[in-house]
């Protein structure tokens, strides 16, 4: 029995050693591969200059999944917006299924967290917008041997934005808006056929000016949505939803269905 216990102890210790070694070695081995994947995804989608200061891959932070983070992200425009900053992000973290790295069927992203994003949106007098940076896709992505498209799968359960800032200027319409202290949380299983979606959006200071008249000055905004989402049938039961602007609150509940091109609604509103 003692011999058996010793053998068992050696096996367990060996397995733990292999797991720890893998946690230290695998991030180093696949770090460049994942960074290349991120760079390719970004470069294929946008017509802008995207840079980041540092990146990190960890197998322990979100075990048994993997965690990949980017720090010091900046997006600057090109062409008539050359040198203008469109967005900056303090850190961008995503959690994904580690084993999807070895699969040709796409990377399974499970959660996304964005810290201190700043978006500087601008519309020129000629109507050009600096956020119009998405490249046009001429053809669909090539299919793999099973006939499925290789892409990034969004098996998403949580999407978080913390301490964000938004600036919007429309020179064509003489309008500007800003929001600071932005927080956003979306939770639910976005890959399921039916799921409970909960969304919370807050902002400490919202400003809005149009035709040189100020309509909002450091207003507080809160949005809460609780939805029973039947994604296969595109049927949404709205249970507990509210929007608050300072002390003015709007609440609503009911149903929204989109089985085809038409949208059917049955909603009840009240302002307590």
Q: Would you write up a description of this structure?
A:
With 272 residues, this protein is an alpha+beta fold. 16% of the residues lie in helices and 53% in strands. It contains 1 helix and 12 strands. Strands 1, 2, 3, 4, 5, 6, 7, 8, 9, 10, 11 and 12 form a 12-stranded mixed sheet that branches. Strand 3 (66-76) and strand 4 form a beta hairpin. The radius of gyration is 23 Å and the shape is globular. The model is unreliable at 15-22 (pLDDT under 50).
**Helical coverage, percent range:** 10-25%
Q: Indicate the structural class.
A: alpha+beta
The main β sheet shows up as:
12 strands, mixed
Quick one: how many beta strands?
Answer: 12
Q: Per DSSP, what share of the residues sits in E-state strands of 2 or more residues?
A: over 45%
Q: What is the alpha-carbon Rg in Å? A: 23 Å
Ranges with pLDDT <50 over ≥5 residues? 15-22
Oligomeric state? single chain
Distance between the termini: 72 Å
Overall geometry = globular
Write the H/E string, N to C.
HEEEEEEEEEEEE
Mean pLDDT: 81
Helical stretch tally: 1
């Amino acid at each position: 029995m003692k011999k058996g216990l010793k053998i068992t102890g050696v096996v367990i210790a060996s397995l733990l050693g292999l797991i720890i070694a893998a946690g230290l070695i695998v991030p180093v081995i696949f770090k460049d591969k994942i960074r290349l994947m991120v760079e390719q995804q970004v470069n294929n989608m946008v017509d802008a200059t995207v840079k980041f200061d540092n990146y990190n891959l960890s197998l322990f932070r979100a075990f048994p999944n993997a965690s990949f983070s980017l720090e010091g992200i900046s997006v600057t425009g090109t062409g008539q917006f050359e040198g203008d900053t469109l967005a900056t992000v303090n850190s961008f973290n995503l959690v994904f299924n580690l084993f999807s790295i070895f699969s040709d069927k796409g990377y399974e992203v499970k959660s996304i967290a964005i810290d201190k994003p700043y978006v500087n949106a601008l519309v020129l007098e000629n109507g050009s917008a600096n956020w119009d940076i998405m490249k046009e896709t001429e053809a669909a992505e090539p299919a793999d041997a099973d006939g499925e498209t290789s892409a990034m799968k969004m098996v998403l359960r949580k999407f978080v934005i913390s301490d964000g800032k938004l600036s919007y200027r429309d020179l064509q319409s003489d309008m500007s808006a800003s929001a600071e202290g932005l927080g956003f949380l979306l939770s639910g299983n976005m890959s399921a056929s039916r799921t409970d979606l909960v969304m919370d959006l807050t902002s400490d200071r919202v400003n809005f000016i149009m035709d040189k008249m100020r309509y909002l000055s450091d207003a507080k905004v809160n949005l809460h949505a609780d939805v029973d989402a039947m994604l296969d049938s595109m049927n949404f039961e709205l249970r507990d939803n509210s929007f608050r602007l300072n002390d003015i609150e709007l609440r609503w509940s009911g149903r929204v269905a989109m089985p085809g091109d038409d949208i059917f609604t049955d909603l009840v509103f009240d302002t307590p």
